[in-house]
Amino acid sequence: MKSLNPETGRCVVLWPHGVLFRDSEAEIRKRMIEEDYVDAVIGLGKNLFYNSSMESCLLVCRMKKPKERKGKIIFIDAKEELHIERTNAWLEPQHIKKISDAYWKFKGDEGFSKVVNNKEVLENKGNLSIQLYVKQTAINSEHNTEDLISQIKTGQKEVNTSLENLFSQLKNIGIEV
User: Fold this and answer.
1) Cβ count near 59 (within 10 Å)
2) What pLDDT is stored for residue 6 in this prediction?
3) For 86, what's the count of Cα atoms within 13 Å in the CB-facing half-sphere?
4) Cβ count within 10 A of residue 20
5) Using CA atoms, how far apart are residues 133 and 21, in angstroms rounded to an integer?
6) What is the pLDDT of residues 70-97, one digit of tens each?
7) CA-CA distance, 73 to 35, in Å (whole number)?
8) Fewer CB within 10 A of the terminal residue: the chain, N end or C end?
9) Full-model pTM
10) What's the sign of the alpha-carbon dihedral 28, 31, 35, 36?
């Protein structure tokens, strides 16, 4: 923070999530919040970085925030905003856009982002843990049991028909099953 221009300075720092709530960093976090340097805390998903499976976070800081952001921090829970393939993960354009839009619009989006007053964060002893502020929304997936059973029965009939067809073709070429 000392190396930033006092008027226009900005930085983004990549950290493991522990730095957001561990006691050993508490005084540094409190001071940064009191000085109103913390602009955003963005949680990222796992496996984004080579040789590290842990989730990480971006701490966005500004020396002088615009009026509408003064005394506030936006928390963005983007840990699900990634594409995972085997042990690799990456952010795709739509993930980057969603995170970027949340940051620039500086508005809450239930289950994804929340703007919090510095006072509330300081009341939580400077804890910047994203889960403390952005509550996960329950996925309400109601299904009609009758429809599900019907779909399963239809699928099973299709599998049985395919197996009968396969056994018939195998018999035609001289393979008995």
Assistant:
1) 21
2) 92
3) 1
4) 21
5) 13
6) 999 999 999 989 888 877 788 889 999 9
7) 12
8) C
9) 0.75
10) positive
Counting every residue written for the chain, the total comes to 177
Token digits of residue 114 = 């929340």
The more confident residue out of 164 and 122 is 122
Secondary element (H or E) of residue 168: helix 145-172
Give the end-to-end CA distance of the chain in Å, rounded to a whole number. Answer: 74
Check residue 40 and give its pLDDT: 97
Joined together, the tokens standing for residue 7 give 């008027």
Mean pLDDT of the chain: 90
Find the mean pLDDT for residues 135-146.
71
What are all long-range contacts of 10-14, with beta carbons under 8 Å and residues at least 24 apart?
10/39, 10/60, 10/61, 10/62, 10/63, 11/60, 11/61, 12/58, 12/59, 12/60, 12/61, 13/58, 13/59, 13/61, 14/56, 14/57, 14/58
